[in-house]
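Page header: ASSEMBLY MODEL / two components / 531 residues total.
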Amino acid sequence: MPSFLTPDFGLLFWMLIAFLVVFFILAKFGFPAIINMVEERKKFIDESLQSAREANEKLANIKSESEVILKEAQLRQSQILKDATATREKIIREAKEKASVEAARVIEEAKAQIVAEREKSERESREQIADLSIQIAGKVLSKNLEKDEQQIEWIDRLLDEMSVAK
Amino acid sequence: MIQNKFIILTSCILFSFLLIPVNLTAAEENQPEINVQELVMEHTADAHEWHITTINGRAISIPLPVVVKSSQGWQMFMSSKFEESAGGIYNGLYLNREGKICEKDSAGNESRVFDISITKNVVQLWIVVILLIVIFLYCAHWYKNKKPQDDAPRGFVGFMELFVMFVYNDIIKETIDEKHYRFFAPYLLTVFFFIFLSNILGLIPIFPGGANLTGNIAITFFLALCTMLLTNIFGSKHYWKDIFWPDVPWWLKFPIPILPVIELFGVFTKPFALMIRLFANIFGGHAVAISLTCVIFITCQMGIAKGASISPISVFLMIFMDLLEVLVAFIQAFVFTMLSSVFIGLAQQEGEETTHSVEMTNNNL
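Prediction written out in full:
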């Protein structure tokens, strides 16, 4: 067998020692440091991604919540506006009604007063006329009327007197 | 911008390669014919010295310590002693044709000695180990005071993190079930980076690299052995049941245990295939690269004109091969780790589906 196909014991011996040395050193201090760090980093990245996803979800939730709140607020705003308009119109309407009722009442009262006044003045003038008539008649009766001319003169004088006295 | 730089760089490399063979032919014209096979074997084999270059016929190499137990007991000396002493024999020891340390007994028969020398591959092995430790402890150090919330690493540490997690997620997690992959991950990661770095360093032609580490059968044998041991030691009951009593018609296993024998054979062939695959791929890559380099010298020996015309093609092929080898360096590390992981993963399965289906049929009956 050619020499290059037969393993040399010397080289085998050194290979055993050298390989065991490099294996134990690298297995203890070399590879674990690298692999552990990479795996920890991977874990960290995974966790970061997870928390980022959660944060995004939360953000989306908050967004939708805020949208809901906004919508509600808008709804309420329009509701309030509507209510306000209704109230305003109601107030105006009521005010108008009240005003018209008041006006009608005032007119009624005025009319009634006018009627009363007129009746009163009519009554007074009638009383006055009656009074005058009675006075005149009394005067006329109390004086013995001789003549027509005298009578008329008499009546004129009485009338004058009365109007002066009045 | 980057593309321009790349083109300039490539053309510089091409031209520098074109210049080297011409200079070398002048020196080597008087040399004997090149024996390619020997050269390939010499460059891919382990050695007791680290050959760097040869200038004017004098080899410049780093001598490495020799530790042997011969008939005279333990000996330890530098490999340069062989060259310095007369006839290349030092204390009765000498290097044979294959570069192994031998001694002659009283009858004059050559015999190998017990040899645990620091050879070229052992040095390369420790360079790889130290580089791996430095790289990964540096990366681990970076993480020391960091929290998961901090930025991910950039630059080199980031690249290594990516690389480690690629192997971890795409090979280990994919093939071994959830409960067990953490336990086997350090071994598989070590194997991956050990093979990958060895392959890459093997592609560098000068000192800190260049040794044919993963193209050496001892190294791949050890790695395959580890995978085999892990597969079988931690194998589940179901795994062993499947080997000795698989779910097949009874006549395939009762009088003559055909399938159990095949399955048992498979326990050894799987890691054997792992060993051969890695070894052959890297060894082959090195052999091709060296052969292509030899083409330059051979054609130049035939004449300057031939050499000048063939060398550019050879250089182009070498660059192509080197790039391919970078790919192979990764693919072989990937394949070895992937298959180890698959074997380990298969041995871990509890066979829930099969037991479940068996229960189902029992109930139906």
